[in-house]
Specification:
single chain, about 210 residues, alpha/beta, Spore Coat Polysaccharide Biosynthesis Protein SpsA, Chain A, two-stranded antiparallel ribbon, 10 strands, about 35% helix, globular
């Protein structure tokens, strides 16, 4: 490999995946990472989708029933962090994941929530392509004028997110970058599917 090609490879923006799967799933009444969708658990589905989209480095944040999840799913090749403060809310899990990523900070992170398992790899690829070509620090998928998940966050947001009060949500930081946010119109209904309770899960599995 020539010096020029080696430099070109290192200069490419690296994108990591961060999956938040630490919550108690109290409204669902069952551990959401272990619910099944199209023959895989929610967590396995998201991992597979990230892999299909070309995201090689993935951090998973566990909390509630962390050991049960680890014993149930093969997480080989995945960086796992257990957030013992998961009861403090989603922001604490986001910060736990970002601390792991800080050791080799990527240019951006695809932030995935475990209760959004139905997003396609094509959608993730569109977000990543937009991030790399536009330089926008926030990239959000949109369908029928509605914003969805996952979102792609650039490295310049990381320090603000890491120092965010745990009572505040990540959106309080994201909103500050509204004028530098790219909204990517997609045809993927999965970006709007938030499986947070038994009825939402019933609808998801009925459509699968």
């Amino acid at each position: 490999m020539s010096a020029e090609s080696a430099f070109a490879q290192t200069a490419l923006p690296t994108i990591a995946g961060l999956i938040l799967a630490a919550g108690e799933s109290s409204r669902m009444g069952a551990d959401k990472p272990l619910l099944t969708y199209r023959g895989r658990t929610f967590l396995e589905t998201i991992l597979f989708t990230l892999h299909e989209a070309g995201v090689e480095r993935v951090v998973v944040v566990l909390g509630h029933h962390a050991e049960k999840v680890r014993q149930s799913i093969d997480l080989t090749g995945v960086e796992v962090v257990v957030n013992h403060d998961y009861r403090l809310g989603q922001t604490s899990s986001l910060q736990a994941g970002l601390r792991v990523l800080a050791a080799n900070e990527p240019a951006g992170v695809v932030l995935c929530l475990v209760d959004h398992p139905a997003t396609s790899a094509d959608t993730l690829q569109q977000l990543i392509q937009n991030f790399k070509s536009s330089g926008h620090p926030v990239v959000i998928p949109r369908l029928y004028g509605r914003n969805g998940h996952p979102v792609l966050l650039g490295r310049e947001l990381f320090s603000e997110l890491q120092t965010l009060d745990r009572n505040a949500g990540a959106n309080s930081v994201v909103r500050k970058y509204r004028d530098r946010t790219a909204f990517v119109d997609v045809t993927d209904p999965g970006i709007l599917l938030d499986v947070d309770d038994p009825e939402a899960y019933r609808q998801l599995t009925a459509e699968a």
